[in-house]
Amino acid sequence: MSEDIDWDPVRALVARVDAGEALTLTPQVRGVLLRTAHEVGIPDPDAQAAIKDVGTATALLRDAWVRIRDGSIRLSLTEMRARDLACAGDKAGARKLLEDLLAVEVVPLYRELAEMELKDLD
Length: 122
What we know:
Elements lengths: L7 H11 L8 H13 L4 H7 L3 H34 L3 H14 L3 H13 L2
Helix pairs in contact: 1-4, 2-4, 4-5, 4-6, 5-6
């Protein structure tokens, strides 16, 4: 899945909106929003409804970006801590950290990576 994901267009849109530019709902922007919403676990009906209006589309963009950013940070920290525990011989503790992450993570890519880390503990 990871080779198909490119969140650079989302980063660019967020930067423009953060700089005060209004989101322009072109077909390309709508496509980026729908694709990204799917990639970060936002239900398709919710995303479809959101792209009909600039205000809700902007909220969708921000929600997707928060999921990308926060999930990335959460995954990185958890992987680092889990590796430290595993290297110290505490595989059960490492497993618990990854399982706790999976209990809250909604981004499919990050879930997939956490599941791979869990398998590597075996």
